[in-house]
Amino acid sequence: MKILVCISNVPDTTTKIKFTEGNRSIDTAGIQWVINPWDELSLTRALELKDDPANGIKSVTVAHVGPGSSEPTIRKALAIGADDGIRINSESADAYYVAAQLAEVIKKEHFDIVLCGIESSDFNGSMVGGMISEYLGIPSVSAVSGIKIENGQPILIREIDGGKEVVSVPAPFVAIVQKGIAKEPRIAAMRGIMMTRTKPVKVFEPVAAEPLTEITIFEKPAPRTACKFIDAENPAQLIELLQNEAKVI
Amino acid sequence: MSVLVYTENWEGKFKKLTFELVSYASEIAKMVNSSVTAVSIGKVDETELRKLGNYGAAKIISIENNHLSTLDNQAYAIVLGEIAQKETASVIVLSNNNTGKAVAPRLSVRLKAGIGSGVSKLPLSIIPFTLYKRTYSGNAFAHVVIKSEIKILTLAQNSFSLIETGSSATIVKMDIPVDSYLIKTKVNDVHKQTGRILLTDADVVVSGGRGMKSPDNWAPLVELASVLGGATACSRPVSDEGWRPHEEHTGQTGKIIAPNLYIAVGISGATQHLAGISSSRYIVAINTDKDAPIFEAAQYGIVGDAMKVLPKLVTAVKELKK
Ligand SMILES: Cc1cc2nc3c(=O)[nH]c(=O)nc-3n(C[C@H](O)[C@H](O)[C@H](O)COP(=O)(O)OP(=O)(O)OC[C@H]3O[C@@H](n4cnc5c(N)ncnc54)[C@H](O)[C@@H]3O)c2cc1C
Ligand SMILES: Nc1ncnc2c1ncn2[C@@H]1O[C@H](COP(=O)(O)O)[C@@H](O)[C@H]1O
């Protein structure tokens, strides 16, 4: 079986987000780019599965839609342990466009399991994984918090409101993963870093696809009103305010 | 033309979030001069279906089909896509919960319809169709224009107030044939937790962080949640340490919630934590450190020791409820 992990790169959450061009795009100067946390965990889980030969995972590939400047994101994934990488050489216009690119690559290269994150922490879209599966007409399982292989068959755990289900779908499929998929992200070891140079990264040009959405302007969140402090000796006053002023209890 | 809303049920019953969705869809219907068609999949009795009328649904399409008794994303997208076309839907509304997130993107590709996901407000304008959306985990907001003819919106839970209209709806039973070979998702086992208010459904959430010091200290926090009729949550280190179950972890890498009231006890307010709770209507912080960043996000704060403050709060709420 071949696994593909789709990785996006996002600004580190502690980065202060600033805008340029009259608030039409984000200011990339000084941004620390990281692999989207979910994708790091997907990759970790994919590598854990491959570590056990009984699972029969032949390879773990990472794919990213992005310009040359996001090459370090792919290299980082290779250093963590992915076997090879694919980059679709394009800015990511919107989720619909990005999914079209990834679906095209999956058609060409044939993967059995495609892993996507539940959302990327930039536009918080939660879309690309589901869209890929529909482009390809293959099953998708969302809110996946666990994956294992039993007798050559992938078994998934998906979260439902107030519980979990153990499900299986025939390969090829897309699993959209969330919390629980792996405990801690695997980090690059020295050997991994040395090896990245020898690992192949294929670059594909994008196929024609039309984005359906467009961000026209960004805004800063409205500042919260200043905090009202209540004396620690008299917390009953808080309950009074919550009832009569905020009216939430 | 219609505004289509997918009204999910849980064992035959709708939840508050279902009615929020229908209220939201009716407000959009007013903006686009159209009416709301609700789609229900599964066994829901007529009394329950009628409730949707009270929130503005003009027509309710009820589909009962055994093949659809478990969520198969692909099959659901096919069924909803077909109804959207029959009803010439211009806008489709789903919840931004697990089911909505699973189905909406597939529907988007099927119908070539752009999505605005996790919205919490009505569109800013109809021409062009512009949404207001949280981005960068709450560190920025964006105006997003959907350019396709059909638009899909997923509504964040607990972000839109119920609007009762007192009107009633026509119920139409519809049979959309679904071939069994199409259902690829096989559910082998189900584990349900019962008896507790779900974190994502709760109006009030009391949440503990590392400042709670030890897993043995949680009793007054749990009691406060209980007397307020709310749910309990925690920060990531707390669930990582195994002090509390993983389902309670809120934040960027945990659950993203938006209750009416979030009480953060012994939580410092790291950006990754705030990413999961910043859409709460009111945030209360209880922390020994007056400079903790959580106070910048909070409307009400108590600088003090959780172990001393919590029991007093419990007493005060009990007094109030008398
Ligand atoms: C990629 C990434 C993702 C992350 N995702 C998440 C996430 O989803 N959710 C999350 O929560 N964190 C997340 N984190 C971790 C986050 O950065 C913080 O480390 C974490 O939120 C801190 O948890 P805390 O507030 O419980 O603990 P601390 O930061 O240790 O804060 C404890 C607080 O308790 C106060 N305190 C101490 N004693 C008392 C007392 N007796 N009474 C009252 N207050 C007291 C202290 O003043 C302090 O403010 C993530 C980190 C990374 C790098
Ligand atoms: N530019 C991209 N390249 C590769 N994968 C992506 C890209 N953008 C999003 N993804 C994948 O889709 C998931 C969800 O992203 P989104 O739909 O943008 O919230 C991410 O966790 C990735 O797995």
Summarize the structure.
Chain A is of the alpha/beta class.
Label this structure with key terms:
heterodimer, A: 249 residues, alpha/beta, 6 helices, 15 strands, B: 322 residues, Rossmann fold, seven-stranded parallel sheet, five-stranded parallel sheet, 28% helix, 27% strand, globular
Produce the secondary structure layout.
The complex is a heterodimer of chains A (249) and B (322).
Chain A: E1 2-6, E2 9-11, E3 19-20, E4 25-26, E5 33-35, H1 37-51, E6 59-65, H2 71-80, E7 84-88, H3 95-109, E8 113-117, H4 128-136, E9 140-150, E10 153-160, E11 163-168, E12 173-177, H5 190-195, E13 201-204, E14 213-219, E15 228-230, H6 236-244
Parallel strand pairs in A: 1-6, 1-8, 6-7, 7-13, 8-12, 9-12
Antiparallel strand pairs in A: 2-5, 3-4, 9-10, 10-11
Helix pairs in contact in A: 3-4
Chain B: E1 2-6, H1 16-31, E2 35-41, H2 46-51, E3 57-63, H3 73-86, E4 89-95, H4 98-111, E5 114-119, E6 129-135, E7 140-146, E8 151-155, E9 170-173, E10 186-192, E11 204-208, H5 219-227, E12 231-234, H6 236-240, E13 261-265, H7 271-277, E14 282-287, H8 294-297, E15 300-303, H9 306-321
Parallel strand pairs in B: 1-2, 1-4, 2-3, 3-9, 4-8, 5-8, 11-12, 11-13, 13-14, 14-15
Antiparallel strand pairs in B: 6-7
Helix pairs in contact in B: 3-4, 5-9
Residues 6-8, 36, 38-39, 63-66, 92, 95, 98, 116-117, 119-120, 123, 125-129 of chain A line the site of adenosine monophosphate.
